[in-house]
Here is the input.
Amino acid sequence: MIQTRQREVILSVLLDASRPLTREEILRYGRQKIDRLGSATVDRAIRELSENYLIVGVEFPGQPKRYELPAESEHPHFICRRCDRVFDLPVAMRLPDIIAPKGYLITGGEIIYSGTCPGCLKKKL
Ligand SMILES: [Zn+2]
Here is the structure.
């Protein structure tokens, strides 16, 4: 088991960011809280936290896997085309119910929007 302190740091990094983070981002922000945070430790903590559903993985086509805290309600995600960061859109939204075509078992779905995030919109080009 990973030390509690390191798991707490990872959870607090995700809480502070309030958007899904890649393992590199978790490592980078985590090191601002604990100097000697090893990447193997972060990988192990991510695995343990995922197995216990304390964090969930989010995967988008062509993007590195990201992690976020379990959401209280379903929400769409947003990818910024300028900085490549992914955000949770604070909009209550349910996935539309669909009838699975014959031969398909559907176990999940995602609504993803894309565009420019508030931070990038503020920056002058
Ligand atoms: Zn952006």
Remarks:
- The CA atoms of residues 55 and 69 lie 5 Å apart.
- The chain has a mean pLDDT of 88.
- The first strand starts at residue 21 and ends at 22.
